[in-house]
Amino acid sequence: MKVNWGYAILIFFIFYISLLVLAVFKSLSVDHSLVADNYYQHDITYQKKYDAIANRKLLRSDLNISYNSHNKELLLSFGSENVDVKGTIVFYRASSKRDDFTEEFVLQNNNQYVLETHRLKTGRWTVKVEWKDQSRTYYKEEDIYISRV
C-alpha cells in the first residue's frame, strides 16, 4: 500500500504533537521542588560542619556506621572510650524529602547505639550523624543501601 506524501506528513505531525503532549503531561506530574527547603541556610552554616568534621581527627577512634541487613539495624559504634554523647541522626533520601527524618540519641557510659530500620524504604540513604561530648561537636556522613532480602 502506497501512502500519499501529504498523508505521510499529516501522520508525522500527529505523532510528533502526541509525543509533545505526552512529554508535557509527564513533566507536570513530576515534583520539581528542592529537596531541602532552606538550602541557603545549609550553605551559610557549612563552616560549622567543616569544623565538626575536622574535630573527628582528634578522636582516638572514629565513629563507625554499619548497617546489618539481616537484623535490619543501624549500628553506631563510638569507639572504645566510654563517653557521654548526645546527638542527632538525620536520614536523608535524595529522591524524596517526604522520607527524610531525624532521630535523637543519648549515650551514657556506652559506646554503641542501635537503631531499627524497618521504616526505611529500599534504596540509598545518607546517614548524617552529629554528636557532642563534653568539649566538642563532631560530624560524620555516610551512605547506606537498604535492601529487603
List keywords for this structure.
149 residues, alpha+beta, Immunoglobulin-like, 2 domains, four-stranded antiparallel sheet, three-stranded antiparallel sheet, 34% strand, elongated
Q: Mean of the pLDDT scores?
A: 85
Mass-distribution shape = elongated
Poorly predicted runs are: none
Please report the first level of CATH classification, the CATH class of the largest domain.
Answer: Mainly Beta
Helical content (DSSP H or I, runs of 4+): 25-40%
Whole-number tally of structural domains: 2
The H-and-E topology, N to C, reads as HHHEEEEEEE
Can you describe what's shown?
The protein is of the alpha+beta class. The chain has 2 domains: 1-30; 39-146, Immunoglobulin-like (Sandwich), CATH 2.60.40. It is 27% helix and 34% strand. The protein has 3 helices and 7 strands; from the N terminus they run αααβββββββ. It has helices spanning 5-28, 39-44, 46-55; strands at 64-68, 73-77, 85-92, 101-107, 112-116, 123-132, 137-146. The strands form 2 sheets. It has a 4-stranded antiparallel β-sheet with strand order 4-3-6-7, with helices on one face. The mean pLDDT is 85.
Give a brief rundown of this model.
27% of the residues lie in helices and 34% in strands. It contains 3 helices and 7 strands; from the N terminus they run αααβββββββ. It has helices spanning 5-28, 39-44, 46-55; strands at 64-68, 73-77, 85-92, 101-107, 112-116, 123-132, 137-146.
Question: How are the SSEs ordered, and which strands pair?
Answer:
Layout: H1 5-28, H2 39-44, H3 46-55, E1 64-68, E2 73-77, E3 85-92, E4 101-107, E5 112-116, E6 123-132, E7 137-146
Antiparallel strand pairs: 1-2, 2-5, 3-4, 3-6, 6-7
